[in-house]
Amino acid sequence: MKKTLEEVLAALLRTKLAGRGIGSLAVRPSPAAPTITVWSREEGQIERAPKREPGFPAYSVTKTFMAALALQFVDQGRLDLEEPLARWFPNVDRAERITIRHLLGHRSGIPDYGGLPAYHEGVRQAPGQPWTFAEYAAHTVDRGLWFEPGTEFAYSNAGYMLLARILSEVGDDSCSNLIDARIVRPLGLERTYSLRTIDDLAHLAPSTSRQLDVAGTATDVRAIYHPGWVAHGVLASTASEILIFLDALFVGRVISPASLDGMTGLTSIGRVIPGMGDPAYGLGLMGDAKSGLGTTHGHNGSGPGYTASVFRAADLPGGPAIGAAMCGVEDGELAAEIVMAALNEVAERDDPTAGSAKL
């Protein structure tokens, strides 16, 4: 007897986790189908009860929420994508030529801190004491641009750090509070919230990291890691709620159709990534217009102890499908691998001749 999609997804999650930690996978195979959620309670045990589904840090999936918030302000006439950064940060190098659009699409030229040895050493030496805004700026923004704004792509967490300050000023509240009030609560996302302190991690799925100790000892992330080490802020959520958010975004419940068109417009990042047809980025959305699944949009996130991914495949025979995975495993590619494997399973059920995709 042919296995159900739920059984296949449960087996997929079990295989991909391979006893390394807890993970959750949510898939909505078509617009008319219910979401299937499977998650691991412990090694080898897969559950199918979304109400008890574990929560995880979303890490850079948070950027998609931030971009949606920015575009809400654009829809209301409170923000213009072509406004220069100089309005808020006049002292930044070439601030008059950097736009909100550049920040959202990682085309500002503002340096990132992700590859800096000083950043990773800071996390190891003092995981509970993150850099201040001024310290982040000293290591990135204050050092000048990597390139002329708009001419290249370079992923920049520091650019989104500035964006968070701008959104806070436009909305007259913290960026995290604005996301909660304008996106999380209206969508009924009961398990999605901003991580502001170490204590906020207490209810997340357990995971260890070797990035938080000078000796490289595996340490419980929830006990010592301050989310302020993500400069732009970070959400916690579940796979099923991240899926709900991305679905709501694409069906017009978060921003206008015109803003969605702008958000999903993909520009090649100008480099080759194995398994991707044309790696690209829109406004707060990663994508690939030439994947084996057709056009895909979504975002990945990873950091100490955890990895997350959510993607929508628009061109499947049965209609758009969405997959989301979140894992308590220190492997930056794992969640994306699970999502793409799950979407390939959906595609093959719709059309046995369908291609495959990785991300």
How would you explain this protein's 3D organization?
This protein is globular. Strand 2 (36-42) and strand 3 form a beta hairpin. Helix content is 32%, strand content 18%. The model has no long low-confidence stretch (mean pLDDT 94). The longest helix has 17 residues, at 334-350. The chain has a single domain (5-32, 39-275, 298-350), classed as DD-peptidase/beta-lactamase superfamily (Beta-lactamase), CATH 3.40.710.10. It is an alpha+beta fold. The strands form three sheets. It has a nine-stranded antiparallel β-sheet, sandwiched between helices.
Write the layout of secondary structure elements.
Blueprint: H1 5-17, E1 23-28, E2 36-42, E3 45-47, E4 56-57, H2 62-75, H3 100-104, H4 117-125, H5 133-139, H6 157-171, H7 175-184, E5 193-195, E6 208-209, E7 219-220, H8 221-224, E8 234-237, H9 239-250, H10 257-264, E9 267-268, E10 279-281, E11 286-291, E12 294-303, E13 306-313, E14 321-327, H11 334-350
Antiparallel strand pairs: 1-2, 1-14, 2-3, 4-8, 5-8, 6-7, 9-10, 10-11, 11-12, 12-13, 13-14
Overview in brief:
The chain is of the alpha+beta class. The protein has eleven helices and 14 strands.
